[in-house]
Design a protein that fits this description.
The complex is a heterotrimer of chains A (105), B (428) and C (167). Chain A is mainly alpha-helical and 105 residues long. Chain A is built from 3 helices and no strands. Chain B has a domain of 278 residues. Chain B is 65% helix and 1% strand. In chain B, helix 4 packs parallel to helix 9 and helix 5 packs antiparallel against helix 6. Classes of the chains: A mainly alpha (105), B mainly alpha (428), C mainly alpha (167).
């Protein structure tokens, strides 16, 4: 039986790795993927807390439901974000985030 | 000997026996599915050939029965060329991914309701499935959803424009039809109130329409609304999902060379091939389980003569194979075919003798459920091959139009109607 | 060392290796594949915790739709390997330690106070989908409708962004 604490530590590690990837990568798409990694780490915490509650608790399944909402929001964000990325890449001819540094394209 | 058996019984009574049984079942299923795949290609070539007024493979072995073996040897011995500039890891990983996912989806398909009459060492019952989770249907959809990667990555990794376009088109098609596939199944889930495949089949047992028709989901009003529209949407979406004719533009030979598997040769191409046929088998199995009652016989249980239908089919079939083999043209055929026919006829006779001999009766009863499931799966596979021999293929924009503008709205309307009927029929 | 603990460590190691590979790979498609590995490992962890519906939705939606979108965009834009740019000194010598400090702070908080979080009595008890859907359509119906609006807006936004230039 796995203590809930282990899941939370794993979630913290994944979140930290997501932050490192966000700060250090130059490709826009990789930065976007690191955002998804951070959202996944948070989902793991939600489910970990949900399973730590006793079985007859009133709000036991709320954590799992929130994971569904987070996944939906991540999907919507990915769709729009990738659309913006495609447009930016077409206009700037580069996927390097350091090149997108002018307010006027 | 008995000491050995009792020692094995005690050693394998816990988790070790459970896992050993699971591995043996997985190995058996893989061997059976690979053989069925191989002979499915033979079946397809023969049927399409006869539909086109020609004979098909008939030189390699009697009636071309060794053609799959010859094809397999060819795949093994062909030169394994890797084009320059490919991304090696992704290029090698994509066919492996496609094959693994196709085979993994077979793990949740149940082949029969009851376990084998004899238990495994250690008292474990041998059920006719590898896993029966409560969300079996969702697991199948998860594996289908991941199957897009095999195609997309194969197209991309080949470092060439035709495979890239073919891969993108094919994966866009698969993603689009996945929506219609999933929506058309929601009606069945509403009627059966569960995601578990065995329970969906059990909800379709018995008779409906005053005992005339079997209570299959496609025709019964029990618990909901007949899922005819759902079945049609599911089947069309499934043909598109498995990239078969008439939806096979991305891999057709006259179009983008050969689509996403242009640059793959020998065994890697064979892996894509096996993956495609295995997903055909999985989808046919899903059609029968979800819409056509799975292992439920179309005849009522009280008609005991219907219980001998496997025997009534197998015995004359075996005798006909013997007759055809005796006047075959090659000596090899005249030797092998009567032996095969005799084997089939003996199995049929044994099952028929179950009417009088008790242990054979038990075997006959046990075989009923898997026989009906396999017969229905065979019918759907024949339907797949039939459409291949008959229909021309769709243009890509027509294909995407059908997926988004026809199948998806129709399957959503089906869900709404089924949900309304189920809601109105459940007493609060 | 019970079986669930071993499975947890295997899946956790897979997830962390996938995340580190996301950081270190040069080509975006390899980063995307590593992220898919992380998502599948997390789906396995959800199954281990008994959240079977969430695991299935994670693979179907996240792994089978969102990541496919990422892979499509990488293929369409023909994203090549990343260019080596010189990091600013601040990023190299300040950023990495700060990020590690953030991780360490979170992990340390979990370790210190984590023992007070209760463990479930029945390990890995499966959450029935029926209860989840009851909750979704009764207590959480308002967020449910809002997220459907959100998806509709996202679809319209993606369509507007992707249409061809006029004229």
């Amino acid at each position: 039986m796995v203590p809930t604490q282990y899941y939370l530590i794993l979630s913290a590690i994944l979140f930290g790795l997501g932050v490192v990837a966000f700060v250090f990568r130059r490709n826009i798409i990789t930065i976007f993927m690191s955002i998804e990694l951070m959202l996944n780490a948070v989902n793991l915490s939600f489910v970990a807390f949900s399973q730590s509650m006793p079985a007859d608790h009133l709000h036991k399944l709320d954590g799992q439901l929130f994971v569904l909402f987070v996944i939906v929001v991540a999907a919507a964000e990915a769709a729009v974000g990738l659309g913006i990325i495609i447009l930016t890449a077409r206009n700037r001819q580069s996927l390097n985030v350091e090149r997108v540094d002018l307010l006027k394209l | 000997m008995t000491a050995l058996i009792s020692h094995l019984n005690s050693a394998l009574s816990g988790a070790a026996g459970y896992w050993l049984l699971a591995f043996i079942k997985i190995a058996a299923l893989l061997i059976i599915v690979m053989t069925v795949n191989a002979y499915l290609t033979w079946f397809e070539r023969k049927v399409v050939a006869h539909m086109q007024s020609r004979i098909g493979p008939h030189r390699v072995g009697p009636h071309g029965l060794l053609q799959p073996a010859a094809d397999g040897l060819k795949f093994l011995f062909k030169e394994d060329a890797m084009p320059a500039g490919v991304d090696k890891f992704v290029y090698l990983f994509a066919p492996f991914l496609a094959l693994t996912l196709s085979l993994a989806s077979l793990a949740v398909i149940p082949f029969g309701p009851k376990p084998l009459p004899f238990p495994f060492f250690g008292g474990h019952q041998i059920y006719l499935w590898i896993a029966n989770p409560d969300i079996g249907l969702l697991i199948l959809f998860a594996v289908t959803a991941l199957g897009v990667y095999g195609v997309a990555l194969a197209g991309w990794a080949s470092n060439s424009k035709y495979p890239l376009l073919g891969g993108l088109r094919s994966s866009a098609q698969m993603v689009s039809y996945e929506l219609a596939l999933t929506m058309s199944v929601v009606g069945v889930v509403l009627m059966a109130n569960t995601f578990s495949l065995t329970q969906i089949i059990e909800a379709q047992s018995g008779r409906t329409a005053w005992g005339i028709l079997p209570a299959w989901n496609v025709i019964s009003f029990r618990g909901g609304f007949p899922q005819i529209v759902g079945f049609l949407c599911f089947f069309i979406a499934a043909i598109a999902e498995t990239n078969r004719v008439p939806f096979d533009l991305p891999e057709a030979e006259s179009e983008l060379v050969a689509g996403f598997h242009t640059e793959y040769s020998s065994f890697k191409f064979a892996m894509f091939f096996i993956a495609e046929y295995t997903s055909m088998i999985t989808v046919s199995a899903l059609c029968t389980i979800l819409f056509f009652g799975g292992w439920n016989s179309p005849f009522p249980d009280s008609w005991t003569i219907a219980h001998y239908l496997p025997a009534i089919i197998l015995l004359p079939f075996g005798l006909w194979i013997i007759y055809d083999g005796l006047k075959y043209e090659t000596i090899w055929g005249r030797l092998v075919l009567p032996v095969i026919g005799a084997g089939v006829a003996i199995i049929g006779a044994l099952l028929l003798a179950g009417a009088w001999i008790a242990p054979l009766h038990q075997a006959n009863e046990f075989i009923q459920a898997p026989f009906w499931l396999l017969a229905k799966i065979f019918f759907f596979l024949f339907f797949y091959v039939w459409t291949r021999g008959t229909l021309p293929r769709f243009r890509y924009d027509q294909l995407m139009n059908i997926g988004w503008k026809l199948l998806l709205p129709v399957s959503i309307v089906n869900v709404i109607i089924t949900a309304a009927v189920v809601l109105l029929r459940t007493k609060p | 060392m019970s079986a669930p603990l071993i499975i947890f460590f295997v899946l956790a190691a897979l997830a962390v290796i996938g995340a580190i590979s996301l950081i270190l790979q040069k080509h975006p498609i390899h980063s995307a594949l590593s992220l898919i590995v992380v998502m599948v490992a997390l789906a396995g962890l959800y199954l281990l915790m008994g959240a079977e519906f969430v695991a299935a939705v994670q693979i179907i939606v996240y792994g089978g739709a969102i990541m496919v979108l990422f892979v499509f965009v990488i293929m369409l834009l023909n994203a090549g390997e990343e260019e080596r740019t010189d990091f600013s000194k601040l990023a190299k010598f300040g950023g990495l330690p700060l990020a590690l400090a953030l991780t360490g702070l979170l992990a340390a908080t979990m370790t210190k106070h984590g023992a007070s979080i209760p463990n479930p009595e029945t390990a890995g008890a499966l959450a029935p989908t029926r209860d989840l859907s009851n909750l979704l359509f009764t207590t959480f119906v308002y967020p449910f409708e809002l997220t459907s609006f959100l998806i509709l807006i996202a679809i319209m936004g993606a369509l507007v962004l992707a249409q061809r230039e006029r004229g």
